[in-house]
Design a protein that fits this description.
Number of strands: 5
Helix content: 40-55%
Distance between the termini: 38 Å
Structural class: alpha/beta
Strand content: 5-15%
Number of helices: 6
Strand order of the largest sheet: 2-1-3-4-5
Amino acid sequence: MPANDSPRVGVIMGSQSDWPVMEYAVDMLERLGVAHETRVVSAHRTPDLLFDYAKTAAERGLQVIIAGAGGAAHLPGMVASQTALPVLGVPVESKSLKGMDSLLSIAQMPGGVAVGTLAIGKPGAINAGLLAAQIVGLQDAAVRRAVESFRAEQTDKVLNNPDPRPHSE
């Protein structure tokens, strides 16, 4: 990603411990050439920062926010309550309930405050990055082409390896 590109996607998480999951969203954005920013914004420990981040996101050029959180997982919903931008929630797996608590907290938003909820953990983070790129690609032909190329690679990988058995040398 060129250094002069202003971020189009914000990737936020409730704590540094969420990074091992959320880095997969960042990896996908980088693979697809989407300018992004990444930071910790806690719904519970830094609510003023959360409100400021969400309220200024559009004027700073963001088009989508990916918010990862575990446990009570209030971050995506609280961000969505403060911005009209699309918010994609990634449930981070918790130790006690294996991420089901996070998933339900993010998915069970009240009508009128939308959060797109992805799968728990790594698959959700990967797909959040991909979905954010698809949204950005609605207005950016280069990103759209990168997404199309990625999808074609996925198809080719399956078609070129139809035998599921490991290959021996």
